[in-house]
Amino acid sequence: MLDIRNVSKMFNPGTTNQVRALAHIDLHIDSGEFVVVIGTNGSGKSTLLNAVAGTFPVDEGQIFIAGQDVTKKPEYARAGLIGRVFQDPFRGTAPNMSIAENLALASRRGKSRGMNWALKQDVTEAVIEKVKSLNIGLEDRIDNLMGSLSGGQRQSLTLLMATWLKPALLLLDEHTAALDPKSGERVIKLTEEIVERDRLTTLMVTHSMHQAANIGDRLIMMYKGRIIHDFQGAEKKRLRVDDLLDRFEQVRREEQLDESAAELLEKRYV
Amino acid sequence: MTLLISSLTIGCILSLLAFGVLITFRLFHFPDITAEGSIAFGASIAAILIVSGVSPLIACAAAFLGGMAAGMTTGLIHTRFKINGLLSGILVTTALYSINLHVMGRSNIPLLFETTLNTKIEALAKWMSGDVESIFLLGWDVAVKDLANLIFYFLLIALTGWLIYLFFRTQLGTAMRAAGDNADMVRALGVHEGNMIIIGLALSNGLIALAGALLAQYQGFADVQMGIGMLVWGLASVIIGEALVGSIQLGYRLAGAVMGSLLFRLLVALALRWGLNPNDLKLITAVFVFIALILPGLLRRIDWKKEKTVHA
What we know:
The structure holds two protein chains of two kinds. Chain A is of the alpha/beta class. In chain A, 37% of the residues lie in helices and 23% in strands. Chain A has helices spanning 45-53, 75-78, 99-106, 121-132, 151-163, 181-198, 209-214, 233-238, 241-254, 259-269; strands at 2-11, 19-29, 34-39, 60-65, 68-69, 82-85, 169-173, 202-206, 218-223, 226-232. The mean pLDDT of chain A is 90. Chain B is 77% helix and 4% strand. Chain B is mostly helical. Chain B is built from twelve helices and four strands; from the N terminus they run ααααβαββααααβααα. At the A-B interface, α2 and α3 of A face α7 and α8 of B.
């Protein structure tokens, strides 16, 4: 479903801030796979997701989604294939428009938008039904402004919006990192439910070792713009948080990271 | 009384300007100075067509299209060539100054003795009222033709406002509003954000050029200088309107823009009548808009300080 071939990306080339964010990445994801990406800060995991989404053009390589070469397509032109949830719960929804209008916009993701009413009777009914499925009592408030909702509620709705039209690929960019633990838990549960129900091909970046160990059926570990581990099938199922920490420790030793950075890592992940 | 009615009529006409500013400044957060060029552009197009004997209705339509083209140009410069929005507007406005001189062939065209929309309205009013010159209204003698103009423009504004409201509830219209509200989101939903800005600027400047065309006919001349300060006037109307209706919902905002425009014109007329030097008008308007723009932040800071002293 997703094919990344030899993709590289350099930020700020030719300056002192030059960063090799992606170095010759090859990755193939089958239809229906739920892939979790984990890595330290600056490992390139979010860059990988953004490269697939089309936030910036890549320096070399090709990206195929559902058999289509999207390498040269800008972000908006790929949107028909991709459902996307951002880390920042405020980036996925329009605060000064109603809940219903936000969802109605998502009901035409990647399609043409003409002079039909955005909130036709059938769209409004579908919006109510969708919102009801969240079980957070928002179905009576669909005319309220999106900006009046909490981050967790907005992130749940963004997830609904990203998956309203079944995307060829669902991209989740640390979508629970900015939420309080309880809302984060709820959004993760909702994610698993939707992905399971619609058998969505999913690429999820996470900061949480716990999520990485327990969610999805494949785990990719990134470091300095490269994929250093790819756990699949039974191996992924056996994986525990401690195993992941060991792997990071191993990387640390291999790369002779200094002790302070490792401490930082532990503080961050344990 | 005549002064009151004529300032209300101009307020109605300039509601179109307020609608245009509302679209660019409030929906897209785009301070579009093209407004100043396109209002004179609309006036120039309408004036030259009317002088050459074209029907005033067609002249107005042509002005609207001309304004759309101007707005589209600003939008293209801004989105395709990544030039700062304000600068894009300044470039187009500067260019329009020369274009307006070419369109009119001179710096102003008088329309007092031409067949304009107003002569048609007045003829219609005369026919409908059976040749009555003036009627007695609320204790004043009101000229029928003045009243007819006011009613006509008010209905026109109500209709235009309604159409804008409906447009922004279509699929395209909601996508445009969303593009101004959250660009990341609309891109992720497959909307070309730049195109939305271009359409918004085209619509806005079309309305503003139409305001110019109507204003030229109402005041009886088109002048190449008539755009100066118009953006700030439009902003003043929008801001007064928001204070009056106190809601950010589009329907209220549009109604507010009309109310703001009417009230603003009324205040201007009163101030001039009470002896304000007309030369100071733009200075005072600019100061007013400045205060209105910083006031929300200022109030918040005062609130915050109060809270701090309470906690201390």
